[in-house]
Design brief:
Protein name: Condensation domain-containing protein
Structural class: alpha+beta
Distance between the termini: 49 Å
Pfam family, one: Transferase
Mean pLDDT: 88
Organism: Trichoderma harzianum CBS 226.95
Shape: globular
Keywords: Transferase
GO molecular function: acyltransferase activity, transferring groups other than amino-acyl groups
Strand content: 15-25%
CATH architecture of the largest domain: 2-Layer Sandwich
Helix content: 25-40%
Number of strands: 19
CATH topology of the largest domain: Chloramphenicol Acetyltransferase
Length: 469
C-alpha cells in the first residue's frame, strides 16, 4: 500500500484543520503518560499520524504524505496552566459544558498549527481543570474526516485501556487503503461536474479571498482564523425532537420521500432559522429569491467498491440544496409544519443525490486535473450556510480505561468564519432519558446581528434550548 498517497477527494478538501474538545472527569496523576502510551500504539497501526502533509514535487499543485517526520512528543503535549486558575469541572458539567470561544467560563488552549505546508497530520493538548481534564485534538482535513477522527479516538481509547506491554491493535488494511478513491483516467477533457468550480484566472481570483473567507468549505485558507463571530451552543431535547420528526414524516409521502431522518429534520430546522436570520425584510417574502446550503454526506456506504464503515480517511460528499427563501422563512416562523417538512424533504433529496456515479465523476475529474488548487468544491453560486453532522460519532461509547474513564462532553475546537452549524452526537447515557436516548447538541456560527435574530427565531425557541453559563 502506498502510504504517501492522498486521493482526489483529499486533494480538493479544505487545506485546513478541524478538531474536537473532549471533557473527562478523571483526576488521575498518571493520565498524561497513559494518553501518550495509547497514542503510540495507535500510531504504530496508523502511520499517517506521524506523517506530514507536504507538496508533491512530482505532481505540482497536489499533496502527499511524508512518513516518519513527527513524534508522539510533538503530537501530544501538556498545557501547563496553574490549576487554581482553572474552572471547576463540576461547574462545567452542571452548566452542560458551555465550552466555546466566547465562553465566560472556559475555553481551552488550542494547539498551534502552521498556515502553510508542511502540515503535521495531528496535534493534541491536555489541559487539566479542577476535578477533571480536557483533551483537544486537531487533525488535517486532507487526511481525515469526522468519521475517521471518531475511529481514531475509539482506537486511542482502546489502546489506553490496554496494559503497557500489550501489542498495538491490528488494523485491517482495507480501513487505510485510499487507492479505492483513485480516479480513472479520462480519455478526453471533460467539463467540470456541477458541484466543482474551476478557477481559470488564479490571479484575479485572489482578490476575492477577503470576501470568500466568510464562506464555508473553502480550501483557499489552510486554517480557519480564530473565531470572532458569536458561537451559540444549543440542546434539542429528545422528546421535542422526536415529536417534531413524527409530525414532519406525515408529509413525507406527498413530498416524494420515503422518510425524513433525524438529521434531515435538525438540518431543516437550523437552515430555515439561519436563513431567516440572514435575510432582510424584503428578501424574506421575495418570491424570486432562492438560497442554498451545503450538507456533508458520509459516502462510505455509497461508493463502489464499498469502503468499510470504519474507513480511516476522507470519504465525504457535499449535497448542495436550493430552496425558495420564502419557504425557509415560513418554516422558521412555524407558519405551518408543511413548510418545514418541505425543507427537510429537499435536504433528503439532496443527500440521496450523492451517489456512486456522482462521486465517481468528481473523483475522475479532480484526478485528471494537473492543479487541484484551481478547483473549488462548490456550485457556481456559493452556498449561504453549511451544515456538518457528527451525529453518528460514538465518542460517548468509548471507554478509555479505569484511570481515564469516559468522555462526558464533545465540543468543537475549530470554527471557520462562516455561517455554519455542526450537529454533535447525542449524549447517550450522560444526560438522557433512561440512559438510552440523548439530547442532540448543536454548535451554530453566525455574524453578530444574524445570531441575535437566530436566537429569537420562533422555531428555535420552540424546539431548542441555549447552553450557556
Amino acid at each position: 500500500m502506498d502510504w504517501e498517497y492522498l486521493s482526489p477527494l483529499d486533494q480538493i478538501l479544505p487545506r485546513m484543520y478541524f478538531g474536537e474538545i473532549l471533557c473527562f472527569p478523571s483526576t488521575d496523576t498518571n493520565l498524561f503518560p497513559l494518553l501518550q502510551q495509547g497514542l503510540s500504539k495507535v500510531a504504530a497501526s496508523v502511520p499517517h499520524l506521524t506523517s506530514f502533509v507536504v507538496h508533491d514535487d512530482a505532481r505540482p499543485g497536489k499533496l502527499r504524505l511524508e512518513r516518519g517526520r513527527d513524534s508522539i512528543d510533538n503530537i501530544l503535549v501538556y498545557f501547563n496552566d496553574p490549576l487554581e486558575e482553572m474552572p471547576d469541572y463540576e461547574s462545567l458539567k452542571r452548566t452542560s459544558f458551555p465550552v466555546f470561544p466566547q465562553s465566560p467560563l472556559f475555553y481551552p488552549h488550542i494547539p498551534n498549527v502552521p498556515w502553510t505546508a508542511p502540515w503535521p497530520v495531528m496535534r493534541a493538548e491536555v489541559t487539566r481543570v479542577r476535578g477533571g481534564f480536557v483533551l483537544v485534538v486537531l487533525v488535517h482535513h486532507c487526511v481525515f474526516d469526522g468519521v475517521a477522527l471518531s475511529e481514531l479516538l475509539n482506537l486511542w481509547a482502546t489502546c489506553c485501556s490496554l496494559n503497557a506491554s500489550a501489542q498495538p491493535p491490528e488494523i485491517d488494511q482495507a480501513r487505510l487503503n485510499r487507492t479505492v478513491l483513485q480516479g480513472e483516467e479520462l480519455k478526453q477533457e471533460s467539463s467540470p461536474p456541477a458541484d466543482i468550480l474551476k478557477i481559470v484566472n488564479k490571479q484575479s481570483f485572489s482578490s476575492q479571498i477577503i470576501s470568500l473567507i466568510k464562506r464555508a468549505f473553502n480550501p483557499i485558507l489552510p486554517k480557519p482564523l480564530s473565531p470572532t463571530w458569536p458561537i451559540t451552543l444549543y440542546r434539542l431535547p429528545y422528546d421535542k425532537l422526536q415529536g417534531l420528526k413524527q409530525t414532519l414524516n406525515q408529509f413525507a409521502p406527498r413530498l416524494g420521500v420515503r422518510f425524513l431522518s433525524t438529521n434531515d429534520v435538525v438540518s431543516a430546522l437550523i437552515w430555515s432559522c439561519a436563513t431567516m436570520a440572514m435575510s432582510t425584510s424584503f428578501q424574506r417574502w421575495n418570491f424570486m429569491s432562492y438560497c442554498s446550503t451545503g450538507v456533508s454526506v458520509n459516502i462510505r456506504p455509497r461508493i463502489q467498491p464499498r469502503l468499510p464503515d470504519n474507513f480511516i480517511g476522507c470519504a465525504i460528499g457535499v449535497a448542495y440544496i436550493d430552496m425558495a427563501r420564502k419557504t425557509l422563512c415560513a418554516a422558521a416562523e412555524v407558519a405551518s409544519f408543511e413548510s418545514l417538512a418541505r425543507v427537510a424533504a429537499a435536504i433528503r433529496h439532496g443527500v440521496d443525490g450523492i451517489t456512486n456515479e456522482k462521486m465517481t465523476e468528481i473523483l475522475n475529474y479532480v484526478d485528471s486535473q494537473e492543479d487541484p488548487t484551481k478547483l473549488q468544491w462548490r456550485p457556481k453560486k456559493l452556498n449561504e450556510f453549511y451544515i456538518s453532522s457528527w451525529a453518528n460519532q460514538r465518542i460517548y461509547d468509548a471507554d478509555w480505561g479505569p484511570h481515564i474513564g469516559k468522555c462526558e462532553a464533545l465540543r468543537v475546537a475549530q470554527i471557520a468564519l462562516a455561517p455554519m452549524c455542526v450537529i454533535l452526537p447525542p449524549r447517550t447515557g450522560v444526560e438522557s432519558k433512561d440512559g438510552q436516548y440523548g439530547d442532540i447538541e448543536l454548535v451554530v456560527s453566525l455574524e453578530s446581528l444574524h445570531m441575535d435574530r437566530f436566537r429569537r427565531s420562533k422555531a428555535m425557541r420552540m424546539f431548542a434550548e441555549i447552553i450557556d453559563c
